[in-house]
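quick one: magnesium ion bound model?
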Amino acid sequence: MSTTTLAPTRRSFDYKTFLANNGALVGLVVLCIALVIATPDFLTGQNLLNIGIQVSTVAVLAFGMTFVIVAGGIDLSVGAVAALSAMASGWFFVSAGLPGWMALAGGLVVGLLAGVINGAANAYGKLPSFIATLAMLSVARGLTLVISDGRPIKTAPEVSFLGGNIGPVPMPIVILVLAALVASFILNRTVLGRSMYAVGGNAEAARLSGLPVKRIIVTVFALAGLFAALAGLLLAGRLDSAQPQAAAGYELDAIAAVVIGGASLSGGLGKISGTFIGALVLVVIRNGLNLLNVSSFWQQVVIGLVIALAVGADVLRRKTRNS
Amino acid sequence: MTVKPLITLQNVTKTFGQVTVIQDVTVSVYPGQVQVLLGENGAGKSTLIKMVAGVYQPDGGQILVDGAVTSLPSTRAAEEHGIATIHQELNLVATMSVAENVMLGRMPTKLGMVDRKELRRQARAALALIGLEIDVDTPVGQLGIARQQLVEIAKALSINARVLILDEPTAALTRHETQALFAVMADLRQRGVGMLFISHHLDEIAEVGDTVTVIRDGHFIAEVPASTPEDELVKLMVGRSIEDQFPRRADETPALTEVLTVTNLTSAGHFDDISFTVRAGEVLGIAGLVGAGRTELIRAIAGADKYDTGSVTVRGAQLPKGDIQAAIRAGIGHVPEDRKGQGLVLDASVNDNLGYATLASSAKLGLADFTGQRRRAEAVAEKLRIRMHTIDQPIRSLSGGNQQKAVFGRWIIAASTVLLLDEPTRGVDVGAKVEIYELMNSITAAGGAIVMVSSELPEILGMSDRILVMRDGRLAGELSAADATQDTVMTLAARDVAAQR
Ligand SMILES: Nc1ncnc2c1ncn2[C@@H]1O[C@H](COP(=O)(O)OP(=O)(O)OP(=O)(O)O)[C@@H](O)[C@H]1O
Ligand SMILES: [Mg+2]
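yep, here:
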């Protein structure tokens, strides 16, 4: 009885709170309806599959980014790490002559290692994650160019399989669904996931409660690297080759997806479902603008405005929560 | 009354989502008077004052400033009406200097640039009012919670307000600083400033207050003179009387097993050559002035900070330096002094916050134990009477005192047997304090040991079996519960102060 319940009062539907909490989803629905009306090309099977494939890379990268942002950091290297992992995988297959499955696994390991280095530089080297991963961005992109000598490398058939189809369903969409399930399982059910929220929300309180904050940070970046590698392999698989300039600038899409999905850049908040919606919003906008023949220059302007809007919603959300 | 109130909250109501927190309450602040707000944790005091401070807008009723209906849509608007607020939770920028924090938003400028000299001068003047002598260039984050509170007070005082709101300003202060604050308040009263004052230290009410408005569950209960006897105030506040404010039940025959042994512990610049033992069933109180090194000592024992030399032993096993996890495994539970900065993850739920210390140990195969955690959290929330509408609400939305109980609750769930408590009842109401003391009793009765640092002398005197007094990082003396009085403790704590000045 002592955990007192305060008297509830009847109030009409609180649309402000609802909008603040589900803005991205509402935006996505509105966007889709608008596109269905605006162009007959939007709601076709082929276009929807296209959207699915495009969203898979962005979303998988963004899932990894969600861990990092929830834990209070930022990872600018995911695009470059994706490219490096794919390129390394191609190199393992073509130049080192490893079997295809080992080349695939090798690519994932490269991503994981890059992440571990990011995390260690942040947690033990005391570099801000922004700086550590900015350095990694440059190093990883450079290594990609060194390995490839600036030319594409053919991927192993196992990697190409990731870009193919099973029956009518594109493999990237299957991988996307699996990655989403795994990521949300980690974030919601595991000790690691719950710890991420604590570290991002208040690292000192987490530390004083006995959470191994440094190890958690390393693991978080390692996961981001692993998810980046997976995204890189998906991308390479679709083209049957690893491209030296693959995924350039994708880190910004990933960050945007996470923020649109309701995470806070100051840490401690964020969900995989939100990130998924955020990635969809980005991809659907691009797709729609393409269908409507808007130039790619203007597309950048629009995407920028959407991000500003999403962050504005974040501010509103904080305000309604704190007051 | 012929004097017109400066501010009146008239029949105000405030709801958050589905929950009504303030219902139809009226309070006025008169010039030259101190209006006290009294109520249990979660009664709605802070919510009420936030409507005057421009943080919240009332959902019903109105605010009158100088008799005219006024809306205060922002803190800025409130300041423009001459209303300054010292909030319960500190609002300082940790990386900025003391001077910059005091003058935040009102930096003196010269030719468009911040006038550093003037900035320091004005900040020093404001700090001198409350007797805080520190280097104004120190980053605020490096100060302990008490000094941060003093900086916050100086910041509000430097605004030259007509109305000053003080939400538990004394919770983190020792008697000494509290006296300095009260002297300033007396002076402001002379100058016709109206004040709204909140405190859970009932003895302070008669000392500075004029009238007391009691609220319970968000409702107005009574308005009484500040001279009303304490037990009557308690009865109005909690709806029943509290027999014994300090229900310490020490063992008749204290056990001889040493649970915690600290030997020659030294950390340069913080504390020097500290040795003591705590036996099973014992509560050891540590008294001292702000800056005596009590918090640093507690943190070192808990593994939160490293120390230079010496050792910490729990039940015969020496703990590694600076290893919080090892300390927790040995049974240590540490309630830090600053709940907002060090105790809580504010965006996380009450449930999560109660469970962090046991997150890993209760897990199976890396999977968090959700059902078990919820069961344990609900049980401890009930035990500590944490007032909330659901255990899943962000802990940020709990009242200050209830947040404090949650930090304590975490270690109850962890079944800690050696509790290191740094201001464990800061901001906790009289009723809930007794609950916490009872929990301390049950922990010592089960063979546990407790070290308690507190700035509240009555609490130290009432709950400790033995008292250590620290001064300037050293042990100044030890007193048994029987010998200790306010005077003996204070003499030890401050003996050199007169000589130094
Ligand atoms: N933003 C919010 N959302 C939901 N509930 C809230 C919010 N802010 C406050 N409350 C609730 O309102 C009630 C009153 O809180 P308030 O902080 O005013 O209490 P208080 O009287 O100041 O208590 P204390 O003595 O512990 O500081 C509490 O039950 C609290 O949980
Ligand atoms: Mg309060």
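The pocket of adenosine-5'-triphosphate (ligand 1) is lined by residues A 6; B 16, 19, 21, 39, 41-47, 88, 387-388, 397-402, 427, 429 (CB under 6 Å).
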